[in-house]
Design goal:
Blueprint: H1 7-32, E1 38-41, E2 44-46, H2 48-64, E3 69-72, H3 94-97, E4 113-121, H4 123-127, E5 135-142, E6 145-153, E7 166-171, E8 175-177, E9 190-194, H5 200-209, E10 213-217, H6 220-228, E11 234-237, H7 244-256, E12 260-262, E13 283-286, H8 289-298, H9 301-306
Parallel strand pairs: 3-4, 9-10, 9-11
Antiparallel strand pairs: 1-2, 4-5, 5-6, 6-7, 7-8, 11-13, 12-13
Helix pairs in contact: 1-2, 6-7
């Protein structure tokens, strides 16, 4: 790979085919019918697809970019030893290397980068056959800030064609690619939130916003896709139930198309290698940055205080 190309572009160009192959791994495991489910906690599941996709993504990126920091959801239970010597592991999206890198990212060094990996976002939904909810997330942070990301949908279009799946990606300052952003309906207020980790605070916070419709789905990646594809206006989750690998990639892509994601108090999460993994402040995201403040003002003070 051309070393004169800025590191961020080289990393995205290498990560895109890695995300595509991780999606194939997930589909292949499902085809075997042997998910080998492990319960890591309260409704926190891990399958063979999580494990295999994690080891493929992390080991491949670590081999190609040995000086960057990589943090994955399954790091505590799996090794990062190489799992494949396929020529596909060295694929690069050459078109990305030709793009003009945003000025603020041109001289980023390896030590500044942390890659946050969720190999299978929406594991519970995967085990239940809700395949449209499933995503692979590769988020890239420079110092504290999420600046780029990839969301692979392994089952995109699976009802219409055998050759299913797609990856979308974005870099703040360059834009987002692989899909067509759409604005949500102007005459309604549609909110998306969790389908499986609800509680009284989550529900009361949604009620305070007075939405016309609430879409309950799994996976942070899937929820942000609903925003950027014009299906929902806001993603509201008054809970500490997500982690940095759930939000880094979606946040970067959302910001790349002009949206905004923060905690319930309007603070941005930090994504450096030393930060804690839990998103203890909840999630508030809107398709348009300009609309974020109006949603934030609707959040009850008792909810905001609970997440400070």
């Amino acid at each position: 790979m051309n070393e004169s190309v800025p590191l961020i572009l080289r990393l995205i160009a290498a990560s895109l085919p890695v995300a595509d192959h991780a999606g194939k791994i997930i589909r292949d495991v499902m085809k075997t019918g042997e998910l080998n489910i492990v319960d890591k906690g309260i409704a926190d599941y891990q399958t063979q697809a999580d494990r295999s996709a994690h080891q493929y993504i992390v080991s491949t990126l670590a081999r190609r970019f040995p000086k960057i920091n990589i943090i994955g959801e399954e790091d505590d239970s799996l090794s990062n030893e190489p799992v494949s010597d396929s020529v596909d592991d060295d694929k690069t999206n050459e078109e990305i290397l030709k793009l003009s890198c945003p000025e603020y990212l041109k001289n980023v060094k390896d030590s500044q980068i942390t890659v946050w990996v969720d190999p299978l976002d929406g594991t519970s939904e995967y085990t239940q056959g809700l395949l449209e909810h499933v995503t692979v997330l590769i988020g890239i942070a420079v110092d504290d800030k999420a600046v780029a990301g990839i969301i692979n949908q392994p089952y995109y279009g699976h009802k219409e064609k055998a050759d299913c799946g797609r990856s979308i990606w974005g870099i703040i300052g360059l834009g987002a690619f692989g899909f067509q952003p759409k604005e949500p309906p102007k005459d309604r207020k549609i909110v998306t939130t969790t389908r499986s980790h609800s509680n009284k605070v989550v529900l009361s916070t949604i009620d305070s916003i007075k939405p016309d419709e609430v879409i309950k789905v799994g996976g942070s990646g899937h929820k942000v896709l609903l925003l950027i594809e014009g299906i929902a206006h806001a993603y509201v989750f008054a809970s500490a139930g997500t982690k940095r690998w759930d939000t880094c990639a979606p946040e970067a892509i959302l910001h790349a198309v002009g949206g905004k994601m923060t905690d319930m108090n309007g603070n941005f999460y930090k994504y450096n290698k030393d930060t804690e993994h839990n998103n203890k402040g909840g999630i508030l995201a809107t398709y348009k940055e300009a609309e974020h403040a109006s949603y934030l003002n609707l959040i009850p003070d008792e909810v905001k205080n609970a997440f400070k």
